[in-house]
Amino acid sequence: MHKPASAPSRAFLLQALLLFLFAFWLLAFHTGDASLWDIDEPNNAQALKEMLAHHNLMVPTFNEALRPDKPILNYWLMGAGVRLLGMNGWGLRIGSVALGALLVFYLALALRRLYGERTALLTGLLTATALHSQIIFRAAVPDPLLIFFVTISLISYLRGYLLAGERRRDYLISYTAMALATLAKGPIGFLLPGLIIVLFLLGRRDLPHLWRQGQIALGVPLFLLIALPWYLAVGVETHWLWDRLFIDQQNIGRYTASMEGHRGPIYYYFLTIPLALLPWSIFLPQTVAELWQRRKALFTQAPEDAFMLLWAITWVVFFSLAATKLPNYVWEAYPPLFLLLAQRLNLALDGIIPLRRWGVLLSLGVLLGMGLMLAALGWWLVPREIPPLGDVAYLGLPYILAALAALFFAWRGRLMAAVGSLGIGAVVLMGVLVLLAMPALDALKPSVTMGRMIRTMEGTQPYAIATWHWFQPSFLFYAGRGAMPVHEPDRLSQLAQIVADGQGTAFLALPEADIATVRKALPKTIHSQELYAGYELYSRKRIALLRLDRALTEKP
Asked: Which three-class secondary structure string do you get for 89-121?
């Protein structure tokens, strides 16, 4: 139950600040060194590049076409990072890193009154070190914005509901956060939080609270004042085409039909969530069991726990029913899960509801087994599927060693030391991924190498870029200048015109196996030179780069 009103102690504020700095360091560690990951990061980055080239930060475009995939807020966030650190991995990703660290800090501060200091800090620590955090908060994508503002909107509403003295302020913060979430990713930013709030009030048999004390008269105008102007502006500028495409394709279309091959069974997220929350998901069975024992009294005696559980379940069920599925879609359900996990661990650490030793040992055994499986797959499967990558069995070592250390401490009844071992293992895994795996994977992304070659060779000279039977957005981002488009001809006879568009020079990226066919189709007036060929991670083919030049006698 929530604690009486009191200012946080200096010790707690210092701990929360240290947790924030730790999270920022953890998420920022070598984050900008890796090249962008296809397809989402370079899609977003190229759209920003074109917006800057057009001096138009209102209408997203990609390759000379409207890009209705995501609203504007992430472009503005990346733009701020680019102004600070440049158009590179650091500039494009630093906003996501900051949001991840701020989320950890916010959870610690906002949950203190509801759950106590140690549970609040532990929630932040679990959030910072979970496996999926090391992915989503290192990426130039809009998900961190949605996660951050959805979390603020729902926790602020819960605080306002339970802490009457802070009700007006927290409810208005909730409306503001929903508006920003809507600018980050669309209607999901207010529809699902609103549904969760309504379901919670129904469970409490207190739905009239929504219009009697829910600050609707102020909150709705505030929401519209923040969220609506950009949607109106982009609608007017594009004759409402952007808005229609966004709603029809990216919202209704994604929910009713799988897009870009992202599909899965209805239980898809029950497979991905335990992996995403590692290493902490091993304690989910004990957490669920404890909540199950209190299920009949949750809404009346522990409304904060009921709200968190309802939040997680509603979000996961909603996206389980969607046709398009991606692990990122349910990240917004993780903050309440981290909180419930932290609360269960805190109850055990305080000796109020101890964890059964056999249950802890079994959970740690599962983690050990997963580490061994990861090592085995890295040794056997990866070299077969991605030969240039070689043996990556080392990826399983952090979980193996962390599980063994935690088993030792758990056997001796030292739960805090066991939890600490898991946290250290999570940090070590991040280091292994960033320092060993990422550079090896980066070498298998030829777009970066080809793009740098083109930019270095041509300098300020004009040229065109094109692809044949292959395309990745990263090639356009790294090889193109500003709003330069990439040509994707459907006939080889079009290559001559592309060379002409480049004022006599064009660069063509294609599977190495197609080089002979392309050369046969080129007119005698065009000379081709193979500049590069390398294995690509995504297509698992060798991708080559040809320079096409109009013969000197043909140049004006």
From this structure: HHHHHHHHHHHHHHHHHHHHHHHHHHHCHHHHH
SS3 379: helix
Strands 464-467 and 65-66: unpaired
End-to-end alpha carbon distance in the chain: 80
How far apart CA 507 and CA 529 sit, in angstroms, is: 10
pLDDT band at 282 (very low <50, low <70, confident <90, very high): very high
The whole-angstrom separation of Cα 52 and Cα 230 is: 17
pLDDT at 38 over 90: no
AA letter at 300: T
- In the chain, pLDDT over 90 holds for what percent of residues? 92
Tell me, rounded to whole angstroms, the distance of Cα 516 from its chain centroid.
40
Contact 341, 349 (CB under 8 A): no
DSSP 295: G
pTM summary value: 0.95
SS (H, E, C) 394-434: HHHHHHHHHHHHHHHHHHCCCHHHHHHHHHHHHHHHHHHHH
Helix (H) or strand (E) holding 285: helix 284-293
Phi-psi region of 469 (alpha: psi -120 to 50; beta: other; left: phi over 0): left
What beta strand segments (E) does 286-433 contain?
A: none
SS3 content of the chain, % helix, strand, coil (to 5): 70, 5, 25
pLDDT (tens digit, 9 = 90+) per residue, 416-427? 999 999 999 999
What CA–CA distance (Å, rounded) separates 81 from 75? 10
d(CA 303, CA 517) in angstroms, rounded, equals 68
**What's the CA gap between 412 and 132, in Å, rounded?**
30
Report yes or no: 418 and 363 within 8 Å, Cβ to Cβ: no
**Residue owning tokens 């930060």:** 57
DSSP classification of residue 238: T
**How many angstroms separate the CA atoms of 70 and 62, rounded?**
12
Whether residue 482 contacts residue 462, with contact meaning beta carbons closer than 8 Å, is answered with: no
* Strand 505-511 relative to strand 464-467, pairing: parallel
- What is the C-alpha to C-alpha distance for residues 18 and 178, in angstroms, rounded to an integer? 28
Structural contact between residues 543 and 446, judged by C-beta atoms closer than 8 angstroms: yes
Residues 6+ apart with CB under 8 A from 63: 46, 476, 485, 486
Residues 6+ apart with CB under 8 A from 295: none
Rg (CA), the chain: 26
CB atoms within 10 A of CB 264: 17
* Rounded Cα distance, 69 and 260, in Å: 13
Q: Is the four-CA dihedral 496, 501, 504, 506 of positive or negative sign?
A: negative
Identify the burial level of 417 via C-beta atoms within 10 angstroms of its C-beta, where 0-12 means exposed, 13-18 middle and 19 or more buried.
Answer: middle
Phi, psi of 529 (to 5 degrees): -135, 125
